[in-house]
Specification:
Shape of chain B: elongated
Strand order of the largest sheet of chain A: 6-7-8-3-9-10
Radius of gyration of chain B: 30 Å
Shape of chain A: elongated
Distance between the termini of chain B: 26 Å
Number of strands of chain B: 6
Oligomer: heterodimer
CATH class of the largest domain in chain A: Alpha Beta
Strand order of the largest sheet of chain B: 2-1-3-4
Largest sheet of chain A: 6 strands, mixed
Number of helices of chain A: 10
Chain lengths: 317, 440
């Protein structure tokens, strides 16, 4: 698949501090790519390198198949986590100014802005000063400014922060809409449920290193433990438990059910399949509940970060 | 380039549309002229109201005709006697009581003169009284030693040296005063401009940092472009404001002296400064002929090249300092944190003005003036002050080249600090930190 962005062994040092250590990431065209990592991992530095705000010390960045050029900023839209607008400037004027800085003509920008203002139903804000708007309102304006010049690559850093659920949904729909129109999106967030919902691909940066990347589904497969959550109804619970413990790794599970089930997490040994488990359980009890435990993005995040921190700490010792 | 123009335009518009900016633009000239008019009126009224001094002349040397002064009304209390006069003066509105003792010789009398007053008297009054007494006593002494006062008066010569250069062009002494005025004016103007609009650049940088729009903008333009745009945009707003000020002040001056008959020049005339008094005296002496000389002299001043140099130094000086101001703005989170970085910027500015005022007037081509007109941080001010007196072209060239080179280096450093600083939050910055940023 074509890549909109390829970062190849990007290194960035700030004095003695290594902010990025040979980070290689490639973002497929037309996808939503989750850029994850704990605070201070180096995400923002990486995003700033894509935006050519800072230059990498080593490595290179390819955009749309070519080495990243200064004029490529016109093809990138960036919504930083720390965002704001000129407080004493009028909304419309400000949006026009920022759009022109992204290479749009004034007329083009005005037409498109009017469309967006209509779409978001905020036409009357045009002549208001930003300081008169609420935080959520200003965020909406900021979102429009980010996407107005229809860039090939959009970078959203925590796009939903500051929005109420209704507006967050509105923004989410617009992001999906932009993707449908062919834009590629880098999405940086700490909210794992939106990662699950939106991202096809993810990369995880931890302590300046990329520790994980790929298609989210593939990563989930890689992290799955062959564990099934089951609810069994039987009169002979104790016997069943004894038998199960002999064959599998079993732990208690917790979920809601109507019957007085035996709730268990059953981890299959290598080579065992789900079919065999069902067949076996079927002979012993009534199966009320049977679900494969899929690792959540949250689990993957925590597990990866913790294990990598440990190795790094161990190495340090 | 197009983006730079956009940034300049925005900076300019955001400045000139600002309410405080508009108010200051139109209010300051009115306030300034008002202040000057007030000073003029006050000095005028204080001159009109003469102080009164009582005197007791025990020596009998003086006649009432000797106590004639433009500013002091004397009241003779010799007949009442010193003791009584003292009591009367204490309760009256007299500024004080002058006592001239009896004495065998003039020197003894002179030593015994005393002035009594409730509060310490004004130096002008005391000076005037001293002058009167001294003239009288000196004359008296001369008469005693047999000098004919009339002959002495007749022997005085009125001398006024006419200046001209070797090619025979006459020049007026007054032109030196004008040179000083032009030089000082230009130097002072540059300092004020840098102080006002440099700080404005700094505040504008801080505003972008605190409003957090900075990251959005520099994802579209280079930080260096943004910095330059800010500096030029602010300069444009500043020049506009200065122009309006100049126009308004001239208009108000002309208008008020025309309509209200308030002669504002009186404020400066009443200045007890010696130099000004000398200038006044010279002014009075200028004949029609000399007026003509002065006029041609003015035209002979290298006005065009002076203007060109003014623009050059003005631009380079402003650019040099405002890029430093921009770097300071980027290094801090709010205006209160700027203090520690301001001193190194303000020091050379103030130094330039002081050096200019102290040395250029007396010796425009002396070592100190020459050296400081070469050092880049003071040269815009000091050199501009020297230029009306005629500076060799190679000195100007060296000074300009040094200034230009320094400007390039400083902008490069400032841009580095700026680039890193605008994205730094919450950390108290110190000089060590700044050095680190330059090396990033």
């Amino acid at each position: 698949m074509e890549k909109i962005l390829i970062a190849d062994k990007v290194v960035k040092n700030f004095g003695n501090f290594k902010a990025l250590n040979e980070v290689s990431i490639s973002v497929p065209q037309g996808s939503i790519f989750g850029l994850l990592g704990p605070n201070g991992a180096g995400k923002t530095t990486f995003i700033r390198i894509i935006n050519q705000i800072t230059m990498p010390d080593e490595g290179e960045v390819l955009f749309d198949g070519r080495k990243l050029r200064p004029e490529d900023v016109h093809q990138i839209g960036y919504l930083p986590e720390e965002r704001g607008l000129y407080k004493r400037m009028k909304v419309g004027e400000q949006a026009l100014y920022l759009a022109q800085l992204k290479g749009m003509t004034k007329n083009d920008a005005r037409t498109k802005l009017k469309e967006w203002f209509e779409k978001f139903d905020i036409g009357p804000w045009w002549n208001k000063k930003v300081e008169e708007l609420s935080k959520g309102m200003a965020q909406k304006v900021q979102f429009i400014i980010t996407v107005l010049h229809e860039p090939k690559l959009l970078i959203f850093d925590e796009p939903f922060s500051g929005f109420d659920p209704i507006n967050a949904n509105l923004i989410k729909d617009e992001i999906l809409n932009l993707k449908k129109k062919g834009a590629s999106i880098i999405f940086s967030t700490h909210r794992m449920e939106s990662v699950e919902e939106l991202c096809e691909y993810i990369a995880l940066i931890h302590e300046s290193n990329k520790v994980l990347d790929g298609r989210l589904l593939d990563i989930k497969k890689q992290f799955k433990t062959n564990t099934f959550e089951v609810g069994l109804v039987t009169d002979r619970k104790d016997d069943l438990m004894r038998d199960l413990n002999e064959r599998f790794v079993v732990s208690e599970a917790d979920f809601k059910s109507l019957e007085d089930d035996l709730k268990l997490n059953i981890k299959l040994a290598n080579g065992d399949t789900s079919t065999e488990l069902i067949r076996y359980l079927n002979t012993k009890a009534t199966i009320n509940h049977y679900v494969e435990l899929i690792p959540s993005a949250n689990d993957i995040f925590i597990q990866t970060v913790n294990s990598n921190s440990k190795t790094i700490q161990a190495n340090a010792l | 380039m197009k983006k730079l123009l956009l940034i300049i335009e925005r900076e300019f518009l955001s400045k000139v549309r600002n309410r405080t900016f508009i108010i200051m633009t139109f209010l300051s000239p009115v306030l300034m002229v008002g202040m000057i008019a007030l000073v003029a009126l006050l000095t005028k009224s204080s001159i009109e109201k003469n102080t009164s001094v009582a005197y007791v002349d025990a020596s009998g040397l003086f006649s009432p005709d000797d106590f004639k002064s433009k500013t002091i009304d004397f009241e003779n209390m010799t007949e009442i006697g010193f003791e009584k006069a003292k009591i009367i003066v204490q309760e009256s509105s007299h500024e004080g009581l002058l006592f001239i003792p009896r004495g065998d010789s003039i020197d003894v009398i002179a030593e015994g003169v005393q002035f009594f007053s409730e509060e310490s008297p004004s130096m002008i009054t005391v000076g005037e009284v001293e002058n009167l007494l001294r003239t009288k006593l000196e004359n008296e002494k001369m008469v005693q030693s047999g000098i004919d006062l009339n002959k002495l008066e007749a022997s005085k010569v009125k001398l006024d040296i006419k200046l001209s250069n070797f090619s025979g062009i006459k020049s007026s002494k007054l032109i030196n005063g004008i040179r000083i005025a032009i030089g000082m004016g230009a130097g002072y103007l540059i300092m004020m401009f840098i102080l006002i609009y440099g700080a404005m650049v700094m505040r504008s940088v801080i505003e972008e940092k605190t409003s957090r729009i900075i990251e959005v903008i520099i994802s579209s333009v280079k930080p260096f472009q943004l910095m330059l745009g800010k500096i030029f945009g602010t300069a444009a707003a500043g020049l506009t404001q200065f122009l309006i000020w100049g126009l308004l002040i001239t208009m108000i001056f002309v208008g008020s002296s025309y309509f209200f008959g308030v002669d504002l020049s009186e404020a400066s005339n009443s200045n007890p400064n010696m130099a000004v008094q000398q200038m006044d005296a010279q002014m009075e002496m200028i004949s029609q002929d000399e007026n003509q000389t002065l006029f041609t002299e003015l035209l002979n001043l290298p006005l065009v090249s002076m203007f060109v140099y003014f623009i050059l130094y003005f631009l380079l000086g402003y650019l040099l300092y405002s890029s430093l101001y921009a770097a300071i703005g980027a290094a801090v989170d709010n205006e209160t944190d700027t203090q520690q970085f301001m001193l190194p910027v303000l020091l050379p500015l103030v130094l330039g003005v002081y050096i200019g005022f102290a040395t250029v007037i007396n010796d425009p081509h002396g070592t100190i003036a020459t050296v400081f007109s070469m050092i880049p941080f003071t040269s815009p001010i000091v050199m501009l002050m020297r230029i009306p007196f005629g500076v060799p072209w190679y000195q100007i060239l060296i000074s300009l080249i040094l200034l230009l080179l320094t400007f390039i280096v400083v902008v490069w450093i400032a841009a580095k600090i700026y680039r890193v600083g605008i994205l730094m939050y919450g950390k108290k910055t110190n000089y060590k930190e700044l050095m680190k940023w330059i090396r990033y």
